[in-house]
């Protein structure tokens, strides 16, 4: 932050180090004699270089004769930090033609040197060289730590056209991992994203907006792998003909290293590199069908200016299930009539007050088994959807919001009692004794908002501080006078601890905890 300050690089001349201990006084005197002996041997006209080296080398190898920037010096090793401070103070006080410096060593720790200079100008030049070297070393460490962020910055600075397939979440993850925390509102996110990547094309939008493509893809199936086979059969299957009218196939050449060649040749879908390859092939073939000379524009670097592509730029699906499309240029969301109606009809609209989260379930428990158990207790139409968050956690959406409180109350009653009725109750098959926890959707949001991140949700909840077995929503607790279901644990303790942990703005993004996560399984399948 202050490049003019020598203290940034450890070159500042500290005040005299106080020699308050007898050990420091004796050590300082011994170091003064050793350094003077070495310095005098340098200035002695009759001393040879071998004699100088012999004088400056002790049996313990703590002093070594070296040359730094063509200047003779002593390398110091195996000294404590306190001893080095004493040596630095001795050098400064008693030897005006010697400079104590710290430089980057071959290992991780810096190297301490005493270097001879023949004038004040030479001394100033030495300090500048040391400072420049330390700065260069620091910059190299920063550059190395930045890593893949360089690629993201390069794409942004060159204003490259970004092409993805159903890529709203991909772009959001790229932003959060390499740019910064996701903004709290969609408007702020879109505005920031446009400054970084002004042109993004979603090939799923491109395929669904064109009648010929929809017909080729059986009107609804635009998953990446199937679209690749249908649009680019000459690449995917080695077939020389194309199903897209009379348009010729776009030839694509790619070089793959030997390590990945086996996966590549077998068509390793969902392997990141091959997915990107399939997306690029689909985009090139789609441009060709639209009458865009793909090769010419790529060489010219002006593909984003092509008028035939403008209707498809900066439009992304928020969710393939809901069919809503967001315009990144304006931030407005509109329903897409070409979205897959058969997927939407399979689900009711998401109702957050009707959702509970169960975690700590037996790992082999299936969604249909959970649905069946709840149906026995609350009726055959009580559950709308069951979705596995991970191997031991599920979302359950009830058909009515009031079933949430009834389920939580019944679950807590069964957890407290061990009488025959409780043991034989249908829900006992999924409650897994003492291990199963339950909460409303707003508690799930609070847990995900924590800066703590664990692979399994059960571990995440435990790390955040949930110890009790059942947590109701804040609104529901307010109605009940903030009383809790679990007699042994007060929910208020959780509220206070969780609120502290969750105050960080760098928690789970709105994207991660949005309604779309409820249908992630289907979204991934369609992709």
UniProtKB/TrEMBL annotation:
InterPro entries the record matches: CAF1_poly(A)_ribonucleases, RNase_CAF1, RNaseH-like_sf, RNaseH_sf
A Pfam family the protein falls into: CAF1
Cofactor: a divalent metal cation
Superkingdom: Eukaryota
Family to which this protein belongs: Belongs to the CAF1 family.
PANTHER family, sorted: POLY A -SPECIFIC RIBONUCLEASE/TARGET OF EGR1, MEMBER 1 (PTHR15092), POLY(A)-SPECIFIC RIBONUCLEASE PNLDC1 (PTHR15092:SF22)
Name by which UniProt lists this protein: Uncharacterized protein
Native source species: Solanum stoloniferum
